Amino acid sequence: CDFPGCGREFSRRFNLKMHQAIHNPKRERPFICDKCGKSFCRIYELRRHEVVHSKERKFVCEYCQQKFSRKDPL
Known about the structure:
Elements: H1 13-20, E1 31-32, E2 39-40, H2 43-50, E3 59-60, E4 67-68
Antiparallel strand pairs: 1-2, 3-4
């Protein structure tokens, strides 16, 4: 991605194009979290976000035993 400060790389052009859309400040964000009001462009982003409001932390770091609501911080 050639957006200043980003530098993300993708092996597929489609993925790069999808990613580049996040840098557009005018993009539509119709999916809104009913708990905190944060908005998202895609429904899957909202669904992924919603678990941060859950008390459930089912992903555990094997090194420090810290628990997370999502797998991606591991």
